[in-house]
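ok so heres the complex, two chains, lmk if somethin looks off
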Amino acid sequence: MADPYTTLGVPRDASQDAIRDAYRKLAKQHHPDLNPGNAKAEETFKAVSAANSILSDPEKRGKFDRGEIDASGQEQTPRESYRNHAEGGSGRRYSRTGPQSGGWSDTDFGDIFNSVFGEGQQADDKRPIQGRDEHYALSTAFLDAVNGAMRRLTLPDGRTLEVKIPPGTADGQVLRLRGLGGPGRNGAPAGDALIEVHVVEHRHFHRDGQDIRLALPVTLAEAVVGGDVEVPTPGGLVSMRVPPHADSGTELRLRGRGVPAHDGLAAGDLYAKLNVVLGAPDEALEEFLRNWKPKNPIDPRQAMREQP
Amino acid sequence: MIGIDVVIARISGLKRQDLERWISNAWVRPDRSADGYVFREIDLARARLILEMRDEMEINEDALPVVLSLLDQLYDLRRQMRDLNSAFLHVVPADVRQDLATHLATHSR
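and the predicted structre for the whole thing:
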């Protein structure tokens, strides 16, 4: 680990202002997000940051000067780097050509290979060129995606789009709004607006194709004796009969209460998996259990022992 | 789900009004939901980078759009290079790739 004064290129008696200026100058030059793929810049930047974290803090600088900490003593934790995101698929979010294009279009190929082979052709400016498809992302609540909803999307240029989220929309589904993309040139039609829907997970419901799964808390009495309970479904509360002798893990089906019918698919079912909740201890129950001699004793951990 | 409060809490030194201005400038582009903005990790990293460029590198906000536009073009190109590279690996036979590498090494200056 090099001497931090050497790393920043400042004398040992440099003022705090001089240290800050030296750091800023080097950070501009070597910031890894501005030098992607340059491992040397990244190393240098790490060293510069570590040196700055010691020397920019008069207290740490004093400790270093007195030999109480060494130059490696204050190394920074790894930085969350923009370029790791930007270079991966997720970086398409900030692509100049739209978040979903994959970065490639026919014209890109033309550009690259024209420049590679030195055969650039001037595009004919009179040709009608269809407008570009424009890509947007829209987050939506789980229930809005399942039941369908109208949403307003404000675009970066200030326009607003009314987006109809059809019932049964799945996470990652792309909605196409014809003619609402970039304008066409020389009389050609406009492109489309393509909206990728991101469905935010629901606290209780989990989607499984057309079906919806749900963990349903029930009391001990409801599980053992049975009874009517109210079950939340995407369409609202529905009453369901819990049969007697149910147990934690018992799965009950509410036919047709899953994702509503859409696009030729029949409505799905809702599966409620019971989860027995004991609640606060009760003296009578405690007393009963102490004296209880089950007629058919069970060993719930038998399978675990036989197949560890 | 990362909302605007989480972003402000996670990036020290970031002020809400700054982030809101960057969003309205489309420098940071979170999704929108009924409850407000929804950020992904890349949006956080980008906001942090913008803050560093402005405060530590003293690139003022008038100059930032130029820098961001160049950065976005750079990363577009790097993704294209990466795609091209992986397409070559899948499509081009090994001996042709070897010839290409040799040719590039000897003719690229």
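quick notes: The domain at 4-77 of chain A is CATH 1.10.287.110 (Helix Hairpins). thats all i got rn
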